């Protein structure tokens, strides 16, 4: 299986309608609060996230991931609850794995709108050219290099 799934417990894998589906849940570990950094294992609730991942064997992959919402018991921390994130698999508010998101961004950088959408279609990631351009526009601009020597022109 994929290395980024090592951090979760895979419960079931099946193919349905040309899509590989994976049911997984997070492991019962202590998770650090994103604000204060204090570890917590006290569960508030659970909910399911649906993530798209890179295709396997020419089939798109969809991961149904059960994640925990935890209480933060840090004194003075303004956050009461937080949701655990799985390193290498989930990013806050994202519906794609970081690996798939990187693939979409690189298709946008290399081929832009229509060409990027065509490449992603071949890779079983159906996105419109507008979506590819949107992801391209979200990328931060590279830092401009500062010239070391300025030569004056006469």
Automatic annotation (TrEMBL):
A Pfam family for this UniProt protein?
Zn_ribbon_ISL3
Kindly give the InterPro entries that the UniProt entry links to this protein.
Transpos_ISL3, Transposase_Znf
Q: Which residues form the Transposase IS204/IS1001/IS1096/IS1165 zinc-finger domain?
A: 31-73
- Give the superkingdom in one word: Bacteria
Question: What is the name attached to this protein's record?
Answer: Transposase IS204/IS1001/IS1096/IS1165 zinc-finger domain-containing protein
Organism of origin:
Streptomyces avermitilis
What lineage is on file? Answer: Bacteria, Bacillati, Actinomycetota, Actinomycetes, Kitasatosporales
């Amino acid at each position: 299986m994929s290395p980024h799934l090592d951090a979760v417990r895979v419960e079931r894998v099946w193919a349905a309608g040309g899509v590989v589906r994976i049911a997984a849940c997070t492991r019962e570990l202590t998770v650090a609060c994103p604000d204060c950094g204090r570890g917590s294992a006290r569960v508030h609730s659970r909910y399911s996230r649906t993530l798209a991942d890179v295709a396997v064997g020419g089939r798109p992959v969809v991961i149904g991931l059960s994640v925990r919402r935890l209480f933060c018991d840090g004194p003075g921390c303004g956050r009461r609850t937080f949701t655990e994130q799985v390193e290498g698999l989930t990013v806050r508010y994202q519906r794609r794995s970081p690996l798939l998101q990187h693939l979409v961004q690189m298709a946008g950088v290399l081929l832009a709108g229509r060409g990027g959408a065509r490449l992603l279609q071949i890779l079983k990631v159906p996105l419109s050219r507008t979506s590819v351009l949107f992801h391209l526009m979200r990328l931060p601009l590279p830092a401009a290099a500062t010239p070391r020597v300025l030569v004056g022109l006469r």
